[in-house]
Amino acid sequence: MMDRYFGDYGGCFVPELLMPPLLEVERAMEEILPGPAFQRDLGELLADYAGRPTPLTRCPTLSEELGFTLWLKREDLLHTGAHKINNTLGQALLAKRIGKTRLVAETGAGQHGVATASAAARLGMDCVIYMGAEDVQRQASNVHRMEMLGARVHAVEGGTRTLKDAINAALRDWIATQATTHYCFGTAAGPHPFPTLVRTFQAVIGREARQQCMKKAGCLPDAVVACVGGGSNAIGAFHAFREDAEVSLIGVEAAGTGEPGCFNSAPLNLGSPGVLHGAYSMLLQNADGQIEPSHSVSAGLDYPGVGPEHSHLKATGRATYGMVRDARALAAFHRLCRAEGIVPALESSHALAYVLDHANRFPAEGHVLVCLSGRGDKDLGIVESHPLPDDDNQEGDRP
Ligand SMILES: Cc1ncc(COP(=O)(O)O)c(C=O)c1O
Hints:
The chain is of the alpha/beta class and about 400 residues long. The protein is about 40% helix and about 15% strand. The structure holds pyridoxal-5'-phosphate.
């Protein structure tokens, strides 16, 4: 049986009723996933349907300004517009192999919902998506896309009406429907085996990026930087570099507005350990262990918890985690649009902002690789409603 923990973090803290489907997924991971037939079918889908490999793009204008070479791993160019499709194709294929006919999923920004709805349509499965009512409003274009793709979208009115509440609703659905249904979990968090399963499907990001960087730059990057919501694009980007001690791994959390007393989405920096959604990991909670509401301008980062492997990477010091405020992410969004002709997702803009605002922390003439996890089409309404920041040289957030 595979390891359920990353150091002290992880585990499987779920109601007894969820153990059978989780054990079924774990068995499928061990017995079906590594086999040549599964790998061939997934490889074909990733190449011919999703559009892998994605390019590694050098940013000439920003590199000139920064004094080191900035590379973007272009997950934004994938079918459906974000890295989420790497995971949903894998999980949908696995679910089908174990006889499931229906997928349920949670979504925050809507990217995982769209990617799950696409995978379900492609593989002939039914699909139900749970989305916080707040997110249904702020990411409306993705709600329409999910419906076009044949999914039923349920707006979840409880709690903060965001991702945390959507996950609760999806877990409740799964308890009742496990005979026919797979819960296609969208990030490298949740109960075992999801953190490992999602990392397995997202690790393609770092595998490709490592090879591409060796080929194009002739060396490994000095740093790999990725935004962290639940942590799937970051762990996918980091995994191939984990043994390369000379490569810094930097995750970037959302600090929200940064105003005193306001909510954030930075459990690794500002939280403490506890259990949320079936795993022991860092999370935002009050002194009584009640989950604190999170906030970020980017729906995909708006989550009070984080995947357990990131808590472990932080505890061991192998990765470090910074924070970026809403306004700095918006500034980075505009800067990438204008300088390089690329419209990033607001989530990915956090990773980029960290690099732009802390350029002096990276070696001159070095190579910095940012995972551009998604494209920003879904965010245009939000960006338009926030005035263009005019103090672009302002120092970013610590650490
Ligand atoms: C484009 C994009 N990037 C990043 C994230 C954050 O998720 P994760 O931390 O699992 O990569 C999301 C979540 O919706 C997203 O849509």
